[in-house]
Specification:
single chain; about 700 residues; alpha+beta; Pdz3 Domain; 3 domains; five-stranded antiparallel β-sheet
């Protein structure tokens, strides 16, 4: 090639590179402008949606601004691990200006906060290798406050670096303990290693996971932070209204259908940590049996691979790690309520739908008691004649009646709700016609939902078993039967207290035609109505208080609607017209039955242990200052592990309940090995169920008094 030709080629390449660079710059500029335009549109749509659709009247004022500011700041850097006191002081100018930003559809605070946070994260990224390259001294008497609410933001970069030194030291220390003390799958391999070797391996692992964490943090986009900000606006109004960007909306749809391959647990972010909010009946987690509501997920591993730290990871990223193909294994490192750390292996699988449906057994002590477990209020509206919880409950009641039961227990523990209409129909099986629940929208008269069928399917002794995770439709059914004096409600000190109704609004459908270039834009979940009991009181906030209350391990913990940020208040409306159950007045019997139950509970070793464990958990919640002295930490971990093991072992004993399968079900159960295995596991679990055992005692007393 001639010199002229080479020069010409070089110039052509230079021009092409310039054109490509310009194209990329224009694309980036266009994308950035489009995202800002999308922000303006989303803020406007959310503000309009709150004003038009939300149950509450929205006052966009300085108080609203301050609550939004506080909530967003808390969520932006929950652990106070990046921002400095000076950053927060600089942003104080926005404390009472966010209402104006919402009105003007501007996002200056959002953009400034993202820039500052990224700058601080870059600083930590620049020092973490230095902090992890030298061995730690675990003999020094220093500690780390792990409760972010008790911490202050670092005063300067020196304090920020020292905070991360302690964070890394804590992470290294926990890994050493897991390796040396028998908490991990690698125990046998390193059991004979010296502490120095274990410390070096632990630092290498923390270094690797930190490097991966910062790599993933770069995947957090402007749109992710915008979602955080928009949800802070919505959650000031109530905790159940939410904005779903397109990808999160897809995940929401998948989780609602229950037809995905994974572990079958509903996850949320609580106090900055990914927390198990619910276990799907019939799922892999449910069948494995060790994962529990309120468990904190610290790490996720694919089988025997090195676990990935998910603390402070965005929920959607953690979900991608946890979800997977049927038959694959995921190992979750969990912090239990009592602060013990446990690795739970789960083989991913699809939900066994039969396990989500109503099912029944017979419990025998002095009387023959029917028992129905209703995991949720389900209804298949996709096809004519689809399964519904109300029809299945009717079938189970009729099967039990054929067996000659003398009383009936309905178990709604951990039932988070579902179909409102099914709750109304199920209530109707136990009462004559009349109102069951009232539903009210903003500025409208309450709508009374009635049982219109005067017939009564079952008129015998009835109890309903609930706990702090019984919510929504479960509370409606329990409240109606309590208000009619039709059933005795038993369980923990109150149900969850969710007395609101949400509606999903697809934003693409309300987007003006000229803005269609912004699609897909996501969806809004908006609280549009409130539930009220027929006595006029809402189930919101305080739930349903049982007639007979059992000691429960979570009784002192912050669980329920009232513990969420900015919940809608409790209030009352007019009482619906209804007649209480007159055939057998349960209200006349409750005082005596409750007194007898209290005596038994006071003499019960099992309930004494439950009460003891509840007090231990309360104290554990207050133990947030963790020693970074290895010997002190090891002693602490061994102590809580021993206490937890002793309690669990003592509560594994059979209570003496005789559990009998219904004859009509046996043929189907015995012909399917999986069904048979699940059925046997269910029966064995009920034999160890202390609360159910006491409920059977109450039922025996009620049958005698009937």
């Amino acid at each position: 090639m001639s010199r002229l030709a080479k020069l010409f080629t070089a110039r052509i390449l230079t021009v092409l590179l310039i054109l490509v660079s310009l194209s990329l710059s224009l694309l980036a500029f266009r994308t950035e402008n489009q995202e800002k335009e999308k922000s303006e549109v989303l803020i406007d749509l959310i503000y309009q949606g709150l004003n038009i659709n939300h149950f509450s009247t929205i006052n966009l004022n300085d108080d609203f601004s301050k609550m939004t500011y506080d909530l967003y700041l808390d969520r932006l850097d929950y652990g106070k691990r990046f921002l400095l006191q000076s950053d927060v002081a600089e942003w104080e100018k926005y404390t009472y200006k966010l209402d104006d930003e919402i009105r003007n559809k501007t996002t200056m605070f959002l953009e400034e906060s993202i820039d500052t946070l990224n700058h601080r994260m870059a600083f930590v990224e620049s020092v973490y290798e230095k902090l992890l390259n030298q061995p730690y001294d675990f003999k020094t008497p220093e500690s780390l406050e792990v409760d972010a609410e008790k911490r202050t933001y670092p005063a300067n970069l020196t304090e920020l670096e020292d905070l991360w030194r302690k964070i890394f030291k804590y992470q290294v220390m926990t890994r050493i303990y897991e390796d040396l003390a028998g908490d991990s799958s690698e125990t046998k391999e390193i059991a004979s290693s010296s502490f120095t070797e274990a410390e070096q391996k632990a630092r290498e692992k923390v270094l690797k996971s930190t490097k991966e964490w910062f790599k993933r943090s770069k995947e957090i986009t402007y749109a992710d932070y915008r979602s955080l900000y928009l949800n802070s606006i919505l959650n000031v109004v109530d905790p159940h209204s939410a904005y779903f960007p397109p990808e999160d909306k897809e995940n929401f749809d998948i989780s609602m259908s229950g037809q995905f391959e994974g572990i079958g647990a509903t996850l949320s972010v609580k106090d900055g940590v990914i927390t198990v909010a619910a276990i799907v009946p019939g799922s892999a987690s449910d069948r494995q049996g060790e994962l529990e509501i309120e468990d904190k997920i610290l790490k996720v591993a694919q089988g025997a691979e090195e676990p990935v730290d998910v603390v402070d990871m965005p929920l959607d990223q953690a979900v991608r790690l946890i979800r997977g193909k049927k038959g694959s294994e995921v190992r979750l490192t969990i912090r239990k309520a009592d602060n013990t750390i446990k690795i739970i292996p789960i083989i991913r699988d699809v939900v066994i739908l039969e396990e989500t449906y109503a099912k029944s057994l017979i419990l025998e002590r002095d009387s023959k008691i029917g028992y129905i477990k209703l995991p949720k209020f389900y209804a298949d509206f996709t096809k004519s004649g689809g399964k519904t919880s109300s029809m299945d409950m009717k079938t189970e009641i009729q099967k039990l009646q054929k067996e000659g039961i003398e009383g009936l227990i309905i178990d709604l523990r951990d039932n988070g709700g579902g179909s409102l209409q099914d709750a109304v129909e199920i209530a109707g099986y136990f009462i004559e016609s009349g109102p069951v629940v009232q539903v009210k929208a903003r500025g409208q008269q309450a709508l009374v939902l009635d049982d219109k069928d005067a017939s009564v399917l079952y008129d015998g002794p009835l109890t309903v078993l609930v706990n702090e995770y019984s919510a929504s439709a479960s509370e409606i059914l329990a409240a109606a039967l309590q208000d009619y004096n039709r059933a005795i409600i038993l369980g923990s000190k109150s149900t969850f207290g969710k007395g609101t109704v949400q509606k999903m609004i697809e934003l693409d459908r309300v987007l003006p035609y000229e803005l269609r270039n912004l699609q897909p834009i996501g969806a809004l979940k908006m609280t549009i109505q409130k539930f009220y009991r027929i006595n006029g009181k809402t189930t919101q906030l305080y739930g349903v208080v049982p007639d007979i209350i059992f000691p429960e391990v979570n009784q002192y913990r912050e669980i329920g609607e009232k513990e969420l940020e900015h919940p809608l208040p409790f209030d009352e409306i007019a009482t619906a017209k209804f007649n209480t159950w007159n055939t057998k007045k349960i209200s006349d019997k409750i005082a005596k039955l409750e007194a007898e139950s209290r005596k038994r509970i006071a003499q019960s070793e099992a309930f004494r242990l439950i009460q003891q464990n509840a007090e231990i958990l309360k104290n554990r919640d207050d133990e947030t200052l963790i020693s970074l002295n290895y010997q002190a930490y090891e002693n602490y971990r061994k102590q809580i592990t021993q206490e937890s093991s002793e309690l669990k072992n003592k509560l594994k004993e059979d209570t003496g309940i005789k559990v009998v399968s219904i004859a009509e079900d046996l043929k189907s159960i015995e012909s399917d090995s999986i069904k048979n295995e699940l059925h046997t596991k269910w029966k064995n679990g009920l034999k160890k169920d202390v609360e159910l055992y006491e409920t059977v005692h109450v039922m025996d007393d009620l049958v005698k008094a009937w």
